Amino acid sequence: MSARRILARQIFAGPARYASIAPYVWMVLFFLVPFAFVLKISLSQTAIAQPPYTPVFDVADGWAAIKHAFGALSIDNFRLLVSDDLYVLSYLRSLVVALVSTAILLLIGYPIAYGMARLPKRWQPIAMMLVIVPFWTSFLIRIYAWINILQHDGLLNQILLALHLVAQPVVWLSTDSAMYLGIVYSYLPFMILPLYATLVKMEPALEEAAADLGASPLHVFWLITFPLSLPGVGAGVLLCFIPIVGEFVIPDLLAGSNSLMIGQTLWLEFFTNKDWPVASATAIVLLVLLIAPLLLYDRLQRRQLEQR
Amino acid sequence: MAEEARKDEVAPTSLKTEPQALPVTEPGPLPQANMPLLRIEGVAKKFGSFRAVDHVSLDVAAGEFFALLGPSGCGKTTLLRMLAGFETPDEGRILLGGNDIAQVLPHERPVNMMFQNYALFPHLSVHDNIAFGLRRAGMAATEINTRVAEMVALVKLDGLEKRKPDQLSGGQRQRVALARSLARRPQVLLLDEPLAALDKKLRESTQLELMELQRRLGMTFIIVTHDQEEAMTVASRIGVMHAGQLDQVATPRELYEAPASRWIAGFVGEVNLFDGEVRTREHNRIVVSTRDAGAITVAEPRNPVTKINVSVAVRPEKVKLSRRGPVADGLGNGSINRLEGVITDVSYLGGLTVYKVRLDSGAFVRSSVANTARIGVNAYSLSQRVVAWFAPDDCLVLEQ
């Protein structure tokens, strides 16, 4: 071993040993600590002040102050979330929108991913580029582009009129259809990519073996291809479902204002009503709701690993 | 041993007693008396401008163990995939029991395939892998269980039915694949390099098991392999493929002792080749004058040589070595070919030793000598001067 290599070892041995705790430091600094702040705010009372809630205790005031601060904590905000059906309804709407969009995404994304995985090897990177290319334009600009296409005298209505499919321009904007269109359009890559990744790894001989053993193309898909692509389906569904539940921009710009998704409600509480405690409580409940499917997925994956 | 023998009897009889079990494998109209089970007629397949299979015709009889042998890219796998239905021939017919199946979809063919990397379904247990094809055929559950148990016993996998493929060793996976492809009792079983992933020892024992299994079941097996030893071990007939064409179809012995071309002679086993011109032919003997080894006397082949430019081929084990030559050693026979040279390489392989002799012309001759005695009485050492000799009957004349 050369001297230089020994030196390099001495320099890097220490830091390398601590590198494994980096993710935990990250989690504590940028997730747990902010989460604790939000939790604390959610348990506080609204106040006309800056910031607009009862102030954080000052450690300098000693134990009594801390005790007082804890004593002032209340779960009133969480009670409000349950008692006012505005919140319950927007949670429900968020879940329904996320479920429906994820189902549509899976139905559209699976055939695309399957087709990509079965393309000749040299075409696959190009197909992949085509899926990723929309990311090169700002997400907001793309949603505004959709507003342009969907508006009263927009491209879509012009085409429909030119083809004599409709007699009058159709109202697209501020409808649920427009919102679903926007969501499906925006999240499609997140569904396609994990599906493609599992499908492309699957040995084509497996499908051939199934056909050889008498399985019709439909049976081959349901008995072999689909079960083996479940990890990709799970990843794609979660990658889409979780952010769609909290989606704010797309429903705000494309859907009507009759019913709100939870992201919009949160925005309203925080910026319009300036009710930080209720907004924080809303965020906490949302997080708890989303952790449930995540844990479920984690358990499924773990079970799959154990079976190996 | 007694149990083993009984098992031998069970498999073929159960084949006969329940012919309706699998409608798919039921033979269609009975083949005509002199019609082979499988007839391939002028089958051709192109990928782009590449002729993968170039007008191949072949008959395989029922109960035969046939091997398709060739280097990679020769089209043997494409031909096999056309038999399984994964590729459709551009031209020609594939007749199975008299019916053209060239356009029949894979899942509707009474033919099963064992895949090179086994292609076991990773999410299904051994039992479910073997039962997969039976379920597709709509067999009753109890019947499926009986058949799977029978197959598991046949390939000696007892006790592993609940395992998933990735909990098995390579050899066990190979057996599951075999059981799965046999379970439907196909009219023809196709095997695509079935032993390529096994190590040498396991491969050799599996070859013997495969032969025994084929004989016991009386099924028609078609194996694709690039390994000429494997083909010669298992198959009763071998078809050699080269550049999309079927060059020769013969028994292993014929293929080795009477290869149809220079290329086959070189592909199947080792060979010494001397290029030359035919000089004289009399008394069933041809004298070929070669650049590297002078005049060589060879026996006139059954199919008379028509060309002047020929190659003389001699297998290394037919080239004998001696210190002073056959005549001086009392083995003399006027027409024996004698080549003198110096030993430049000795490879001891256990059962035999291969010597490389540099002739005075600069060309090399290989001779393999069986080590029939423990103490090497016939051993020659490096740079020793020897006479390499061989009889005219041991030579082959191949047209160039």
List the main descriptive attributes of the protein structure presented here.
heterodimer, A: 308 residues, mainly alpha, MetI-like fold, globular, B: 400 residues, alpha+beta, Rossmann fold, OB fold (Dihydrolipoamide Acetyltransferase, E2P), 2 domains, 5-stranded antiparallel β-sheet, 9 helices, disordered N terminus
Brief characterization of the structure:
Chain A is mostly helical and 308 residues long.
Could you say how many structural domains of chain A there are in total?
A: 1
User: Which two protein chains have the largest interface (Cβ within 8 Å of the partner's Cβ), and how many residues from each?
Assistant: A-B, 20 and 29 residues
What count of helical segments of chain B does DSSP give? Answer: 9
Radius of gyration of chain B using CA atoms only? 25 Å
CATH class of the largest domain in chain B: Alpha Beta
Number of strands of chain A: 0
CATH topology group of chain A: MetI-like fold
The sequence of SSEs of chain B as H and E is HEEEHEEEHHHEHEHEEHHEEEEEEEEEE
Named CATH architecture of the largest domain in chain B: 3-Layer(aba) Sandwich
Q: Main beta sheet of chain B, described? A: 6 strands, mixed
Strand portion of chain A, in percent? under 5%
Placed side by side, the strands forming the largest sheet of chain B appear as: 6-7-8-3-9-10
Any overview of this molecule?
The complex is a heterodimer of chains A (308) and B (400). With 308 residues, chain A is mainly α. Chain A has a single domain (80-307), classed as MetI-like (MetI-like fold). Chain A is built from 15 helices and no strands. Chain B has a six-stranded mixed β-sheet, sandwiched between helices. Chain B folds into two domains: 2-257, Rossmann fold, CATH 3.40.50; 270-399, OB fold (Dihydrolipoamide Acetyltransferase, E2P), CATH 2.40.50.100. The radius of gyration of chain B is 25 Å and the shape is globular. Chain B is of the alpha+beta class and 400 residues long. Chain A binds chain B through residues 203, 205-206, 208-217, 219, 223-224, 227-228, 307-308, and chain B through 24, 84-86, 105-108, 111-113, 115-117, 119-123, 132-133, 136-137, 164, 166-167, 180-181, 184.
